[in-house]
Amino acid sequence: MDMTELNTLTYDDLDSVSKLQKSRRYADIMQQVEEALEGSVLEYKKLIVDCKQLLVDIENEIVIVQNFIRDKYRVKFQELELLVPHPIDYARVVKRIGNEMDLKLVDLEGLLPSAMIMVLLVTALTTKGNQLPEDVLLKTIDACDRALDLDSARKKPSHASETPSSSASGYKSLENVKHINVAANSSTIKITTRDLSLNYKPGGHKSFL
């Protein structure tokens, strides 16, 4: 499924289309990352490849969840998705506003720039939205939490101390590994050794685990 298809998805049951976090593959790769950063034996080249693909899948999963949130929340505040297009910012704002109709009662400081908050307040005065039914609101907030969890997973920065272990596959000993940093800020999955540096950048994706 490509990004165009993802952006046109409509559905009522998020679990029927958003399955990544419950998959065995997702759990296994995340576990391998944790073990590697704790100093266990690491097949680092394979882990980089696995992480690279997983991060693409996470980006796609966030699009799926964002579409679900937008489909539900348009009834409440349709203009919001245009004013806050970034999926994670959108999820945070939706979760904060909830079913509140008077945005002056909602503290959005820290979520958006002051100028954007003013735009939202003005727009909210003229929107024709309605409160969501309780069951729909709960599904929407759950989807926001899922989007935020995915965002945390993809940009989790970690460091591993030196691990005195050797690789059975003939690669350099892990005792040479200075640190492993899977970081969103650098947009890079990086493994740095004393004499080897590997950088992988999936095209078009801005952040990583």
TrEMBL record:
SMART domains for the chain: NOSIC (SM00931)
Domain NOSIC: 47-99
Top-rank taxon: Eukaryota
SUPFAM superfamilies, A to Z: Nop domain (SSF89124)
GO biological process, one term: spliceosomal tri-snRNP complex assembly
Pfam families found in the cross-reference section: Nop (PF01798)
GO-annotated cellular components: U4/U6 x U5 tri-snRNP complex
Name of the molecule in the record: NOSIC domain protein
Organism this protein belongs to: Arabidopsis thaliana
